[in-house]
Predict the structure.
Amino acid sequence: MAKPSSRPPTIALSAAAPILSASATRLLILQPTPFCNVNCDYCYLPGRDRRERMTVATARQAAQRLLDDGLVGEELTVLWHAGEPLVMPPDFYDEAFAAIDAVLGARTRLAYAMQTNGTLIDERWCELFARHGLRVGVSIDGPADLHDRHRRTREGRGTHARVLAGLQRLRERGIAHHAIAVVSRESLDRADEFFDFFVAQGIRDVACNVDEAEGAHVRSSLAGHEAAHDAFLQRLLDRSIASGGRLVVREIAAAARLVARPLLQYRHDGADYPENAQVMPFALVTVAWNGDYSTFSPELLGQASADYGDFVLGNVQRSGYLACVASDRFQRLWRAVRDGVDACRRDCAYFGFCGGGAPVNKLYENGDLASTETLYCRSMLQRPFDAVLGRIERDGPSAPRAAAETAP
């Protein structure tokens, strides 16, 4: 395999802005369709009724533009996400994978991943997952009543039973998968049921995303209930340690790893910063069904903003990714993101373990990309980190180790 160049491209901003050397893109997020077959009440995505579909040519061009712009490093994950990727036919992915492989397969170690609501998984999909070695994430919020309270069909029926059937097919076929659960207010008093559910389903790894205020979903149900969320995480940590890593909770595992091994650093404008892909241009690239693209937080693409329009920076059919750097929209967006990073650096004790937060949450919680702490920060980084540190102080450094590694 040909080794890609280790020399990153230089992004020259305006005279008033600093110069950044772009790192390689780590994650290419492809949105094959805005349509979703379910209607979760906490979803942030706009346009979930639209049925447009990405073409294989657009997928190929999204990959080609990375190569043309020198953004291809030693590894790249291509993630299919938003709305529901499985409403596309399996044949589309066979062709798209072949097209992307033809462009990038000799230049980088490619991995494919897909995030699905799980309701459409059948034997055809299992065959495709197995054929291409996909990393499959399934969205499920735990026990049936917690899940069906928020994840319903467009007719208002719960989807839990259909997701369980999809998980059963994955287990029967031996296809590796993990879960992503949205933790809402109703989950917080039921940590043991939540933990036991995933163990019973044979899930080894679960991510506990919080119910976020983002896009069309304007208020998190965790607002005003942060002490209960802390107790929820503390109990998950207890259970994960006691299970010997039988179930690993992503946020707790990430905190345990950060305690032992801080984030890598990058140099920018004469100073060192902890790496955070959401605040580094083109480390994450998101491409919509029609080829429109953006960077920084993936959730920004397509959202409405008085200051930044729909966060579309260009289209892969017309130009490469780096072509947007000269645009006024990118310049303003980049400055605001950097101002937010520098504000976090000045004000936040967790900065060395975070690197500046998530721009999309700053925007929708605080109304300003240049702001600092959010409910999302406190829920996804600060409380898990404090829980792990507290356990180390009480029981010694080896105590959380089981919570950071999945048991064999």
